[in-house]
Amino acid sequence: MTAVFQEVFVSVGDAHETNPAVKMSAAKRAKGKTTKKRPQRATSNVFAMFDQSQIQEFKEAFNMIDQNRDGFIDKEDLHDMLASLGKNPSDEYLEGMMSEAPGPINFTMFLTMFGERLNGTDPEEVIRNAFTCFDEEATGFIHEDHLRDLLTTMGDRFTDEEVDELFREAPIDKKGNFNYVEFTRILKHGAKDKDDM
């Protein structure tokens, strides 16, 4: 499906540049005969950065955040979403998040913002930062019961069997603390061999 998106965007771009009718309308715009602004092309190309399954996951995330279902993420949506996670963000924090977008946050802008972030960010850091949202004391650990609850009740929900499978290989100490820093390292670099320990 991603190839289809890419072909459509490339075809539209090529047709735009070679079609005489399009060239004519571009000439009219240059002369000031029309006031319609051409949309920025950078946001449409964001779909080429992700495969179809990633786009679907981002769409699900967008819909989770867009609490009022108006097609845009606003400050109230962010507040409600964070409140559902047990957070109580300040207005300044929410304003800071909203100011990262150059305009209204529809799905295309949402994808664009993620694309920009992911291109310039270490994936290990992104994963670790996702876990830190649930580690209020910044210990590097999340209790396995709390993590199980999060994984089975939020977002793309895991089954108990899937969580059990994850925990079999996960770095969990005798007190039931899931070491997400080590888990992130394992995801990025692989598990240490027993010979290395």
Automatic annotation (TrEMBL):
Q: Which UniProt keywords apply?
A: Calcium, Metal-binding, Repeat
What is the superkingdom listed in this entry's lineage? Eukaryota
Q: Name one GO molecular function term.
A: calcium ion binding
A Pfam family found in this protein is EF-hand_7
Q: Which residues form the EF-hand domain?
A: 53-88, 122-157, 158-193
Q: Which SMART domains match?
A: EFh (SM00054)
- Kindly provide the name given to this protein in its UniProt entry: Myosin regulatory light polypeptide 9
| Annotated source species | Labeo rohita (Indian major carp)
Q: Which lineage ranks, top first, belong to the organism behind this chain?
A: Eukaryota, Metazoa, Chordata, Craniata, Vertebrata
